[in-house]
């Protein structure tokens, strides 16, 4: 990482990188609102407005998710894919998510539509991550869009031609249970105000989930200090 990265990312901020990353980590880790976090920080002598906390999360949550990817353990080749619903601008949109057979997070995609094109975009995004492999099996629900997307991708050489698509709903309990974490984190804010806001925030939620699932070797799930130090190291800052 270049020495100038830290200055560029935190330039102009009233607070230190340590405090900013500390606050962002807390918000993404626990089901709290920005106003709750404002009170928690005030209790620790840090006076910062909830609107500033919102801007911090929007700026650094997707950056954490991007920087964590190269440090993740490789997922296995059995994918469990499903969609859940997130409220954005007062409307329900689709959140595509995937985990492997061991419950490790693979990727996510927010989409206004639930069709073959969206499924294909999600598969492409997931396949492009450094911690994923071309799946041997992809377990999905009965949504007719998935077979269409898989056929088109195999025809285009984007998906392994021997990959098996299984439309068996009960086998997707792993990813359906994993959706509950996202729902719990979203609930305090009563939905998102924009599509971009939702996507950036969820990127941070997913990054914290990967840490909790011990997908990062140097950040054990139960060691908050190690997690804090790991996030600080991603940005070249001293925790």
From TrEMBL:
SUPFAM superfamilies reported for this sequence: Ribonuclease H-like
Keywords from the UniProt entry: DNA recombination, DNA-binding, Transposition
PANTHER family linked to this entry: BLL1675 PROTEIN
GO biological process: one example: DNA recombination
Name of protein: Transposase
Taxonomy, superkingdom: Bacteria
DDE domain segment(s): 77-215
Molecular function terms, GO-annotated: DNA binding
Organism: Microvirga lotononidis
Xref: InterPro entries: DDE_dom, IS_Transposase, RNaseH-like_sf, Transpos_IS6
């Amino acid at each position: 990482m270049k020495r100038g990265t830290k200055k560029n990312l935190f330039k102009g901020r009233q607070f230190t990188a340590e405090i900013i990353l500390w606050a962002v980590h807390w918000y993404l880790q626990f089901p709290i609102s920005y106003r709750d976090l404002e009170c928690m920080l005030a209790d620790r002598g840090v006076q910062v407005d909830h609107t500033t906390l919102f801007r911090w999360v929007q700026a650094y949550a997707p950056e954490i998710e991007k920087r964590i990817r190269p440090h993740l353990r490789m997922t296995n080749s059995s994918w469990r894919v499903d969609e859940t619903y997130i409220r954005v601008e007062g409307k329900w949109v689709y959140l595509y998510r995937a985990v492997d057979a061991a419950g490790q997070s693979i990727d996510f995609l927010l989409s206004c539509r639930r069709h073959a094109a969206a499924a294909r975009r999600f598969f492409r995004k997931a396949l492009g991550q450094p911690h994923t492999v071309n799946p041997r099996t992809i377990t999905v629900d009965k949504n007719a869009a998935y077979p269409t997307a898989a056929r088109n991708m195999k025809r285009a050489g984007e998906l392994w031609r021997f990959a098996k698509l299984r439309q068996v709903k009960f086998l997707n309990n792993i990813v359906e249970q994993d959706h509950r974490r996202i729902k719990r984190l979203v609930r305090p804010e009563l939905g998102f105000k924009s599509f971009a806001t939702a996507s950036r925030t969820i990127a941070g939620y997913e990054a914290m989930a990967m840490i909790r699932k011990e997908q990062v070797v140097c950040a054990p799930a139960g060691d908050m200090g190690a997690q804090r130090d790991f996030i600080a190291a991603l940005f070249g800052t001293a925790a």
